[in-house]
Description:
By secondary structure, this protein is mostly helical. Helices cover 68% and strands 5% of the residues. The protein has helices at 10-31, 37-54, 71-78, 81-97, 105-123, 133-162, 170-205, and strands at residues 58-61, 64-67, 214-215, 218-219. The strands form 2 sheets. A two-stranded antiparallel sheet has the order 1-2. The longest helix has 36 residues, at 170-205.
Amino acid sequence: MHIPDGFVPPGICLAGYGISGGITWYCLRKISRDRATQANIPKASLLTAAFFVASLIHIPVPPSSIHLVLNGIVGIILGYYAFLAILIGLFFQAVMFQHGGLSTLGVNAIIMGLPAIFAYYLFHWRNRLQGNKQLLTAVLSFGAGASAVLLSASMFAFLLITTISPDIDADTEKKAILLSLTGYSIQAAIEGVFTLMLISFLERVKPELLRSSEYDGRSIHK
């Protein structure tokens, strides 16, 4: 899902840096109003490392392989810290392992970072809903993990299809991208189950990790 150097026009790369810069500024503004910064920064560092390592663990799914993205889990636990964690993780993945590219770093950060923030709001919607909390946690954690990957995959496919270079066989490229969406659907289901299992475990042993951060002096569920 990482877009490498040379796959999108320079204008898109520049726009990606501009938009991701704006999102980073907005997230930092939110974080500056967080009343639990000292507790959340170490948590963000740990999950940045987990996001970085996740791309190295490949699961064979013939004819190719997939790897966990973890942007849903990172979003659920970190909230607005998630965009910065993913941006830093993507930078080191590009520099050390050539996963993605430096010219497309801003674009890749948007593709994976925005769905993480969406996952945060989706999961913490459980605080507003009435009913069996255990069931709500299970459903929303699966939904947040799976939807974050699907959103990223949809943004990835849309961007590539709409910016295909005239030097490339557009029909063949579109078929390859649409086929890859099938693989991402499988990956989303795996990611949803993994997120459900991890969140259920944390709910039992460390529930404070799943409390929504308080930005602007109020919790999102108030």
